Amino acid sequence: MRTERANESGQTERRDPKVVVGAAIIADGRVLACARSAPPEVAGMWEFPGGKVEPGESETAALVRECAEELAVRVEVGDRVGRNVRMAHGRSVLKVYAARLLHGDRPKALEHSALRWLSAAELDTVTWLPADAPIVAALRPLLAAD
């Protein structure tokens, strides 16, 4: 998936979308959901932790870094969950990976207003960000199997 735009000379440029990664951290049949604290238009909505992949960084390395920065945890990244989700009018794409906590780490809400561990039956009890919502259905079988 590429986006196109006209440059200053009117020629069309093709750009790959920015990749945003998310972690579906699963433990004891539950997944970690994080409530956004900002910006105001999405504050209180729920997401999977993660962030932008930096230039030269792999998707899994970005996810490990983001989990450390946002939650003060170390994770092992597993398989992809769900499909790519287009964001920001096609300028970004969200890719979510299953992950598990390492070394008994416990997440801390360093950048979020709240954290919740949700079972498959509880996934619909929070309001997910539009980009994260399509991943929820793909998560149900993983939570049942854990």
TrEMBL record:
Annotated ranges, domain Nudix hydrolase: 16-143
GO molecular function, one term: hydrolase activity
Record Pfam families: NUDIX (PF00293)
Gene3D superfamilies: Nucleoside Triphosphate Pyrophosphohydrolase (3.90.79.10)
Keyword S-adenosyl-L-methionine: no
Keyword presence, Nucleotidyltransferase: no
InterPro entries cross-referenced by the UniProt entry: MutT-like (IPR047127), Nudix_hydrolase (IPR020476), NUDIX_hydrolase-like_dom_sf (IPR015797), NUDIX_hydrolase_dom (IPR000086)
Known catalytic reactions: 8-oxo-dGTP + H2O = 8-oxo-dGMP + diphosphate + H(+)
EC annotation from Swiss-Prot or TrEMBL: 3.6.1.55
Names of required cofactors: Mg(2+)
Alphabetic keyword roster: DNA damage, DNA repair, DNA replication, Hydrolase, Magnesium, Metal-binding, Mutator protein
Domain of life: Bacteria
Sequence similarity: Belongs to the Nudix hydrolase family.
Protein name: 8-oxo-dGTP diphosphatase
Organism (species): Micromonospora harpali
